[in-house]
Amino acid sequence: MAKQELVKQAQVVASFDYDGLEPGPRSVVQQRTGEIKERLQRSAQDIWEVGQRLAEVRACLKHGQFDSWLQAEFGWSRRTAYNFINVYETFQERSNLAQINIATSALYLLAAPSTSPEVRDDFLNRAKAGEKVTHKELSQTLRGKPSSSLSQSSSQPTAAPPSQSSTASIIKVIPKATAPEHHPTAVSSPAPMPASELATMPPGWYRLGGQHVMFCGDTASEEFAQQVPPVAFALAITSNDWDHDWLIDQARTVTILAEADVQAVMVEAMLQMFSQSQESVLFPWLPQAEMLAIAHRLGRRVYAGDADPERCRAAAAAAGLIPQPLPPHQN
Description:
By secondary structure, the protein is an alpha/beta fold.
């Protein structure tokens, strides 16, 4: 699955100092490191086993060493590691997760300390009965509201429904290579607008050109995930620290690229390959300002976001679109 493939692609920028450990802890940590890498699969039982080993390593290391080890060996943040650890600590027996039908991102949410035991038991029993449990359904239950998204309001752009169910989503990691052949379109390109002419973009939701929606904030947050409708294609340009497993449930096709591998011609080719005009696409990061402009020119409806306000402004400017603040979503 996505995170496993990302780890394989990751370039380790630092080495963990095993020589600084006592022989006993060093042996345990090195052994568990190898076992975790072997078990980076996306089944519930594998997640439990990874969490178990992470908890053991955490117990062997001093304050600060755990974060250093995570970064050196996996390129992970503490938040990513605790997704696994929470599953292990919440479900005391690995066998409890055998053959359950639950999305990875939903399993992490189910194991979160903030999830009540009643909700956890209800969804776990439904998963054991063969029902597909998704991140979106679970998070909506936790927020105490029915299914909704920005696309359901008449004042928001609507998403074209995917031609396949979300369980058929494809995870593609495209390495640096020549982009697939693409065909120019007859749609005219927007005139770029200097970013200095745009108003400042404080955190929040914005509409662009009456067609696109942009979130200036953390796209790994529930606030963003809850409001994005099903999309035909999601392009995730990110490091290996992956906190967006919910995309697997949300998009028909997901492509994950390292930032260094991205070229405008590749973005255009993938949009044409995996989506059609008027379909919705998702960009949960905006490291390349031209991404939104390309999708706009191709006639896609875009849901985009980035925690960096300057990236949001640059993307809007490149597309020649002035962001209009949207009112806070009513829970």
